[in-house]
Amino acid sequence: MLLEQVAATILRYNMLPAGSRIGVAVSGGADSVCLLHILLRLGWPVHVLHVNHGLRGAESEGDERFVAKMAASLGAPFESCAGGLGAGNLEAAARARRLEYFQAARERLGLGAVATGHTRTDQAETVLFRAMRGSGPGGLAGVLPVTREGLVRPLLGVSRGEVRAWLAAEGLAWREDSSNGESRFARNRIRGEVLPLLESILPQATESLARLAGIAGEEEEYWRGEVERLWQPVEERPGVVILEAGVVAGLAPVVGRRVIRYAMERALGGCGSVTLEQVERVMALARRPEGRGKVMVAGGEVWRSFGWLRIGRAVEAPPVRVLVEESAYNEGRHRIDAGKAPMPWRYRAWQPGDCYQPVGADRPMKLKELFHRARVPSWDRRDWPMVLCEDRIVWSRRFGVAQWAMAGPRSRHIVDVREQGE
User: Fold this and answer.
1) What's residue 90's pLDDT?
2) In whole angstroms, how far apart are CA 78 and each of 65, 118, 336?
3) Across the beta sheet with 392-396, what order do the strands follow?
4) How many angstroms separate the CA atoms of 24 and 105, rounded?
5) What's residue 344's pLDDT?
6) Is the dihedral of CA 236, 239, 244, 247 positive or negative?
7) What is the location of CATH 3.30.465.60 in the chain?
8) Are 41 and 29 in contact (CB under 8 A)?
9) Is 241 left (phi over 0), alpha (psi -120 to 50) or beta?
10) Pairing of strands 151-152, 113-115
11) What pLDDT, on the 0 to 100 scale, is given for residue 148?
């Protein structure tokens, strides 16, 4: 019966490309062991993939040996990846490391897909977790049956209890992860306390939550098509998307929120940790009639300036190198009379209150006014380079030489100032 249920799920979502080898993520736990055996019995050629995060010492090493031995007994190719983690949320870091490895393995080994052992019970737990964290409709889609990154979940149609019952009936062993009992992880408490309580009130709770995820997933797929049809960014490059704030603000909320999430996905990667509250803060930023501001979101930040929204990772100003060279010419907006502005000069980034009169201006102007006139957005102003003679501004990026220091026909010692690459 279980084999038929899994086969039906694979067929329904067209999960596995015909004739291709399938990567199977096997931790050694019941779900992944079940998945491996079922795919083999259904006739799929597999390649076993294991990630050893090393978080449980000897127990982690035992899991790896168990999976390697099982793969060898089944005649399946096996490889393991060290899953070292950095600082931060352990669960999130471990998940990101696994996804990175699975994508790399899929490309390197020419796998048609990588299958993971998520069950209907995992789906229900995910929906509960995201709803309590403040997710919007997109988050309620839970664990997707098929992802754009090539992951598939053939066990989504069966429960964790059905998996264990099948393994016991078949006499197949698996490993228990001792960390699954640690109450410090929110998911473990949902698994061990919250979901059982819900099922004691409504026996169909798990199935209903999983059904909700399926419906939400189908609706999100529809809305994604609508968002892609409307997608017209002002600018898009790796790690950055810039949108017209007015255009976003003019969309119906149900569309605007999805456009913001889509922009975050394209600029920041996966948006699993972005909450509805964060999306609403970005929408509020877009709806401002004018002005500027910044909102921090998971994985990055959103700036508002001059009617634009910049969505991307934290802005890091590129290193600036100002070149000062002797010049044989005495005309040009970058050329300075070193007799009027004797060296040594000093370099610093602009500061609020900075004011000077660039060549061609009719009066001294604050840098803030120059930025506004030139429509320099807030995120591009960091570390804006200035050259000073004592306390007087001699030159600045884009706006050029100060009127008082400009070289003229009678200048004898002329210096050219510019940024490297100009």
Assistant:
1) 67
2) 11, 20, 68
3) 346-349, 385-389, 392-396, 400-401
4) 11
5) 87
6) positive
7) 231-312
8) no
9) beta
10) parallel
11) 86
Q: What is the pLDDT of residues 48-58, one digit of tens each?
A: 999 987 777 78
Q: What is the pLDDT of residues 202-260, one digit of tens each?
A: 999 999 999 999 999 999 889 999 999 989 999 998 889 999 999 999 999 999 999 99
Q: Please, which residues have CB within 8 angstroms of residue 404's CB and are 6 or more apart in sequence?
A: 340, 341, 357, 392
- 231-312: in CATH 3.30.465.60: yes
* pTM of the predicted structure, to 2 decimals: 0.72
Q: 322-419 has which CATH code?
A: 3.50.40.10
What pLDDT is attached to residue 317? 58
DSSP H helical ranges for 110-173: 120-133, 160-170
Q: Given the DSSP bridges, would you call strands 46-52 and 22-25 parallel, antiparallel or unpaired?
A: parallel
3 state SS of 386:
strand
Ranges of CATH 3.50.40.10 domains, the chain: 322-419
Is CATH 3.40.710.10 what the domain over 2-216 is classified as, yes or no?
no
- Where b means 16+ CB within 10 Å and e means fewer, 53-74 reads beeeeeebeebbebbbebbeee
Q: In this structure, are residues 303 and 310 in contact, taking their beta carbons and an 8 Å threshold?
A: yes
**Spans in the chain with pLDDT lower than 70:** 83-90, 181, 270-273, 315-334, 420-422
> What whole-number distance in Å separates Cα of residue 128 and Cα of residue 190?
8
| Domain limits, CATH 3.40.50.620, in the chain | 2-216
Instruction: State residue 126's pLDDT score.
Output: 92
Angular region, 400: left φ>0, alpha ψ -120 to 50, beta rest: left
**Contact indicator for 355, 294 with CB cutoff of 8 Å:** no
What are the DSSP calls for 165-189, one per residue? HHHHHHT------GGGG-TTSHHHH
User: Rounded distance, CA 338 to CA 389, Å?
Assistant: 10
Tokens of 123: 């789906």
What is the CA 394 to chain-centroid distance, rounded? 42
Burial class of residue 42 in the structure, from the number of CB atoms within 10 Å of its CB (0-12 exposed, 13-18 middle, 19+ buried): middle
Q: Is 219 exposed, middle or buried (0-12, 13-18, 19+ CB in 10 A)?
A: middle
Distance of CA 154 to the CA centre of its chain: 25
